[in-house]
Amino acid sequence: MSGLRRLLLFCSFLFASLVVNVASAQLADNSGNFSNYDEGAPPNTDSDSVPGLQMQTPSYSGTGCPQGSVSATLSPDGTSLSLLFDAYVTEAGGTTGQLRAAKNCQINIPFTVPPGYAVQVVKMDYRGFVAVPSGARSTFGAGFRFLEINGRSTNSRRVLRASVMTGPRQENFVLSSIVRGPEFSPCGRSFVLAAESMLNVQSNRAGEGAVSTIDSLDATETPVIYSLRWKRCGGGQQGPGPDGRPPHPGPRPPRPRWGR
Fold first, then answer.
1. For residue 207, how many other CB atoms are within 10 A of its CB?
2. How far apart are CA 133 and CA 119, in angstroms?
3. Which of 170, 182, 218, 235 has its CA 20 to 30 A from that of 136?
4. pLDDT at 124 over 70
5. Which of 120, 112, 110 is nearest to 159 (CA)?
6. DSSP state at residue 38
């Protein structure tokens, strides 16, 4: 075989591998950007009532959510999940002695669901405060995925959203995203909503102080809200989901792309 032919075959193999990897990445997650404003009412007014729905005690870990610093509340109608953080603050520059800092948090929220129902997360809202000088920036990333109660992944994709806020800026912020797509929890089965996030702050060359937090200075506003939409599905443990797909375990989701 000539050297040119071997080179062409190698290039063809490399191109095919890249196509497969890109396709796998596209199937593995649903990525995009947050809007820097509230995108409006969540599309869940047609959510079904779920008798017997229960949210169990969440577990969480990460530098942005030390033990005792997070609380979760499910609305009586089951369409709004609110998260409150007490210590999700990232600081860099100034007297910190570091030009860059990052915090992260992973929250696993178990739900007990009666047969015949599944849920979508249709909107994410995050509120906080940022104070970064010129040349500095704050980067925030957040998302979720559905897990089986035993921790195995499901056939729904991980949903990721991100936002970069550059200085000079000192204000409360709202990051919002309407989530579109057929990402349902397993039909008729209890599940874990795994919510993940990271908050990164980078100072400028002068090392001026920069801070960002996931919190709300207005006591009437909840820092984090996941809007839920419940629908009837195939029923039993092996019934199809609302999108017609069987609830079989899918591929292991990739690590978040935001870094740490």
1. 17
2. 41
3. 218
4. yes
5. 120
6. -
Q: How far is CA 2 from the centre of its chain?
A: 51
DSSP class of residue 81 equals E
Amino acid identity, residue 153? S
The tokens describing 12, both together, are: 């063809």
Which positions ≥6 away from 260 have C-beta within 8 Å?
102, 104, 198
CA gap 215, 218 in Å, rounded: 9
CB 212 within 8 A of CB 199: yes
Computed from CA positions of residues 183, 185, 186, 192, in that sequence, does the dihedral angle turn out positive or negative? positive
- The residue assigned the tokens 């800026």 is 169
**pLDDT tens digits along 169-185:** 999 999 999 998 778 99
Alpha-carbon dihedral 106, 107, 112, 113, rounded to 10 degrees: -70
Alpha-carbon distance values, 134 to 45, 54, 202, 256 (Å): 42, 47, 11, 28
Side chain identity at 228, as an amino acid letter?
L
| Predicted local confidence at residue 173, as pLDDT | 94
Per residue, the 3-state secondary structure of 54-89, as one string, reads: EECCCEEECCCCCCCCEEEEECCCCCEEEEEECCCE
Smallest CA-to-CA distance from 228 within 141, 107, 146, 114 is with: 146
Domain map (residue ranges) of the chain:
30-232
pTM of the model: 0.79
Instruction: Find all residues with CB under 8 Å of 30, minimum gap 6, and list them.
Output: 157, 158, 159, 160, 179, 181, 183
For 15, other C-beta atoms within 10 Å of its C-beta total 10
Q: pLDDT of 197-214, one tens digit each?
A: 999 999 999 999 999 999
Q: Check residue 230 and give its pLDDT.
A: 97
